[in-house]
Amino acid sequence: MSNPTPSNVSTNVLTATVSRLPLPAVWTAGSKQQRTLIMGVALAILSNLLFGVLYAYSSFLAPLSGSQVFIWRMLAMWAALIGYLLISGRLGLHLDKLKALRTVKQWVWLLLPTPIFLSQFWLFMWAPVNGQGVQTAMGYFLFPLMMVVFGCVLFGEKLSRLQWLAVGFAAVGVGSEIVRTQSVSWATLWVCGTYPVYYILRRLQGIGAITGLLVDLTIFAPFAVAYLLFVAPSSLGLVGGSSFFIMMLAGLGVLSVLAMKTNVDASQMLPVNVYGMMSYIEPALLFILAITVLGNPFESAMIYSYGLIWLGIACLIAHGIRQLRRAHKESKVSKIAQTV
What percentage of the chain has pLDDT greater than the value 70? Predict the structure, then answer.
């Protein structure tokens, strides 16, 4: 008999805990699979809301710059992650995975995606307070579409008609924005062009999200401390002398780890298509926050190009729904065949 994986244990504990609460009949009367689906959807929504809060977080930490907030976030996130792994007793599990890497090539392969991860987290904190909020949010909208393209090119995955339509709409939308502005935001290109590379490299390595996050943050922690000591000592003095900043940065670290943890749990509980569709909540929320709370500009002429990109997203969602219905029908047929 195989031992349960840590992710399955975490899912079972979480589901059992929620089962003790007074909940509606849709939870208590449903099967274990249905309860897991409901819990996964709830965690996916929570993680996307937390990422939305984090996107606007840096605007409340003035006079710290976007880069300084990024540095503090990495340190706070590292401390919160280490604390969580120690309390949960899982730090040894992730360290054992790293000890299994024996060759220099394996370690180089492991560290290759780290600069991409760090640059993405920097942009996530820098963009909202530097007028690039809308453009960065658009990069996150394009990210799933680029994952489809990368899957087709690198892994030979076949695209359905709806997926081809999605890619086509997105391509025309980006093209029209380039023609309109005679340029395209580097923030948009960096998100949708490099983030897929990070996920693909981690997937090829077989490194879990939390293990990869632990590696990325631990490598960067000494550089972050050096930056605060030698480049931005005023930031160190400002934070060290203010209980408000200390509490806000501690909250930044806890929220960051909680957002990552709920996102990883949701990805393990939900079917890939459902998880993919839920991932659109975050860029939609970032887009709204960038325009409303952060006051980033949005011109009416952008509606055409952005509308085409959103049409592409709608095609991907429709594709996911169609696959879910097909899988549901096949499951029903399989159950009927087993009872006959």
Answer: 83
DSSP state letters, 34-67:
HHHHHHHHHHHHHHHHHHHHHHHHGGGSTTS-HH
DSSP codes, 152-211: HHHH-PPPPHHHHHHHHHHHHHHHHHHHHHTS--HHHHHHHHHHHHHHHHHHHHT--HHH
- Name the strand (E) or helix (H) holding 138: helix 133-155
Q: Which residues contact 239 (CB under 8 A, 6 or more apart)?
A: 64, 72, 245, 246, 249
Instruction: Please give the model's pTM, rounded to 2 decimal places.
Output: 0.70
Q: Please give the torsion angle defined by the CA atoms of residues 261, 264, 269 and 274, in that order, rounded to the nearest 10 degrees.
A: 120
User: Tell me: the pLDDT tens digits for 210-226?
Assistant: 888 899 999 999 999 99
pLDDT tens-digit readout, 8-62: 445 555 555 555 555 554 444 456 777 777 788 888 889 888 988 888 887 788 7
Q: How many CA atoms lie within 13 A of 317 on its CB side?
A: 12
For position 2, what pLDDT does the model report?
35
Question: Is the preceding omega at residue 233 within 30 degrees of 0, hence cis?
Answer: no
Q: Which of 279, 246, 120, 106 is nearest to 191 (CA)?
A: 120
Angle, CA of 331, 333 and 338, to the nearest 5°: 95
Residue 331 to residue 308: CA distance in whole angstroms:
35
Burial letters 12-32, b for 16+ CB under 10 A, else e: eeebeeeeeeeeeeebeeeee
Write b or e for each residue in 298-314: b if 16 or more Cβ atoms lie within 10 A of its Cβ, otherwise e.
eeeebeebbebbbbbbe
Count of positions (residues) in the chain:
340
| Per-residue tokens: 150 | 């990368």
